[in-house]
Amino acid sequence: MPKIMICGRGGSGKSTLATLLAKVLAERGKVLVVDTDESNLGLPEMLGLTSPATTLMGCLGGKPAVRDKLLASIQKKGDENTGFFAGDLNLASLPAECTGGEWPLRFLRIGKIERSLEGCACPMGAVARSFLKQLQVGKNEWVLVDTEAGVEHFGRGVVEGVDLVLMVVDPSHEAVLLAERAKALAAQLSKDFIAVLNKVDAATEPFLRRELSERGIPVLGAFGFSPEIMEANLTGSPLPEGRCREQVNQLLASLSF
Ligand SMILES: Nc1ncnc2c1ncn2[C@@H]1O[C@H](COP(=O)(O)OP(=O)(O)OP(=O)(O)O)[C@@H](O)[C@H]1O
Ligand SMILES: [Mg+2]
Fold this sequence. Notes:
The chain is α/β, with parallel strands linked by helices.
């Protein structure tokens, strides 16, 4: 079963769609939601899960330890392949202290910016890349990767370890341009690429479908603006159970796995 990377521009609904998909998939098997966004904090609340005690970076000794390993590896071999994780990685072997929730739905954070002047988020990107590449996913298991806004995860190579890129497109020209760029970036690594519309209505949905179709981008799902979702995100409550279930099921049915 696949590892799906959910990307898009800022505020388009990446975390919302990751949550809606996770809730439905967790009724069919095991789902791990991986938060690779080094800034935003609210994903566990959206999912209705408690935050893990630490991040994956924390489990690896913290940012200075990760940075030292990275630098040593680059100096020695000229690449970032540090061998952060020994042996096989699968959903059953994840460190308990950095996973929140219980199966069938668990949550893992790669790392967050926690101190002023601590430096850039590149070490988080390297850990995410290595973790996702090594993570084996079995039958009836899914990994949903929530990303930061934009395309930096393509540059950092986080995308290498996933099977499918799901681009969230909200009603804006910028979102269409970003989808076009992301499709090209995904193609460079032979990754499947689809778009899902979010916050659309009767006027914006056909417009976006046309714009994306002209750019050769398949649109496999569409979600309207939901006042219940907006309210839950305003108050930091879990997204309403069963919300958009029909649209999620349609989207999953149209994916070829
Ligand atoms: N279908 C929807 N209906 C109503 N509001 C929505 C919907 N999808 C997202 N939103 C609202 O849009 C805002 C951004 O959503 P979300 O946090 O999921 O976006 P994001 O792409 O993950 O943002 P970021 O780039 O900051 O990570 C939230 O306030 C949320 O309530
Ligand atoms: Mg988000």
